[in-house]
Amino acid sequence: MKTVTPYLANLTPLRGIAALLTVIFHVDLMLGLGGNLLLKFEDSWLINRMYLMVDFFFILSGFVMSHVYGKWFQDSVERSEFKRFTIARFARVYPLHFVSLLATVTIFGVSGWIGIPENLIMEANNNLYSFITNLFLLQAMNLHDWFSWTHAAWSISVEWWMYMLFPFLVKPFMNLKPVGRIAVVLACFGGYLVLTFLIIPNLPAPVALPFFKPDPLNNTVNAAVQYGFLRCLCGFVLGMMMYLGYRENWGKSWLANGFTLVLLSAGLFTCMHFALADVFSISFLPLILLSAAYGSPSTDRFLGTKLLQRLGDWSFSIYLVHQPLMFLFGNAFAYYQFSRNGTYGQPSKPDQFVGWLVCLAFIAVTLAVSALTYRWVEVPARNYINRQFGGRKTVYSVDPSATTA
């Protein structure tokens, strides 16, 4: 039986940081009624561009899947290994996805029962059909034109199907010569350009939201329930190529130091700040990943702190728990307003200072709940499924292949 390769500890905190940035992005959308609250667009587009953390998750997944499972499929895809791999990935992502889906359905169901009006942006596609597609992780495979239920789970949907494709990519990709690797990397960025300039500007408005249309000048790769799989494919394969470079110490002499990691991060945030085309921001993500993976004494000390490691452990819970909590608090506030004023009017937009206070308080609650779901849902469910169906005798408190935020 093949052993599971221990994860690269420096990558764990990056997941947690990226998950928190995603939470800030969604809080800004919620409180700002579309953004432009925590940071004004005239000051910076940084928070508006934090959806790119999802692209980092995709790149990270391709890298870590190659590191952990690449040897399983380097010669061929055997049925027994594919089964073990599928069970391991199911045990990693599905239990918490299922719990967050049920939580979201319950929140919206109870809200409707007590008379809280439907929020069209949040609930436009919430129906039995979308519940079934969410249940089978199909909600982002071009079956809908808008988000449904736990919106953030769209990335879990496309990543699950990328997992199913991954074993069949290992042999041809892991044996590529340098020219072939360069061609694949260029193809990935070509995919991002197709999304940016051909697909997203021409997407029709959702049927239930005819007023919602992407800005053709936004230069974004932010596809989700439509063409999200292409976005995931580009990132995941790019991560696989980066793993080949890591395995051969590509660029280690200049990437393996904390100063380079800081410079690369500054480059990323500068591109996001000025709202440059997303393809420029994404070009920094694989290098940040490599720099952290190589590590250095200063990098290892910083990323090895207990707080950041724990944040990384909780990252998947942070990602899937924060939106049900957001729906819960939003609807509770709406009901409170109704009890005081007798009406469900549009909530007022807070000022920037109050917005940040609310954001920090929400992050604190999200972290507390995520610690609980990690301890009582993620770990026991993963261990049980792997023991019962995956043939693992070892019980993991931390999954070495846990990459999804």
Automatic annotation (TrEMBL):
GO molecular function, one term: acyltransferase activity, transferring groups other than amino-acyl groups
Keyword set includes Ligase: no
Transmembrane region(s): 16-39, 51-73, 93-116, 153-170, 182-204, 224-246, 253-269, 275-295, 316-338, 353-377
InterPro entries: Acyl_transf_3_dom, Acyltransferase_3
Key word Disulfide bond present: no
GO biological process: polysaccharide biosynthetic process
GO cellular component: membrane
Occurrences of domain Acyltransferase (ranges): 14-375
Sorted UniProt keywords: Acyltransferase, Membrane, Transferase, Transmembrane, Transmembrane helix
UniProt-recorded name of the protein: Acyltransferase family protein
Source organism per UniProt: Larkinella terrae
